[in-house]
Amino acid sequence: MSAQPSLISLATAVPPFALDQHDVMARARRLFAKAGGDIERLLPVFANAGIERRYSCVPMDWYGHEIGWRERNALYLEHALNLIEQAAVGCLERSEEHTSEL
Which of 11, 25, 97, 99 suits 19 as a labelling partner, its CA being 20 to 30 A distant? Predict the structure, then answer.
């Protein structure tokens, strides 16, 4: 008889900057207006998404700066790896708690 696989722990990791959906929408409006885009037609997506708060690895002001693809990608990789590590460590710690109870 073989043991059935089971999930004994879960963990999450959340980026440090909480962004209010209303603030994100206002920032998008300003940024796209500068670029000459038709942002007003797209703004209802923010209201209809059902999202109140988003999380980001960078503060809201970061999104207004000219940042090249290479720097953006490096920043993404750095933060993604940190978040993966946090979630993995949290999951392992929780699994140790559960397995000690068995």
Answer: 11
Q: pTM score, two decimals?
A: 0.73
**Residue pLDDT, tens place only, 33-42:** 877 778 888 8
Reading phi first (left if > 0) and then psi (alpha if -120 to 50, else beta), residue 84 is in alpha
Paired tokens of 27: 């920032």
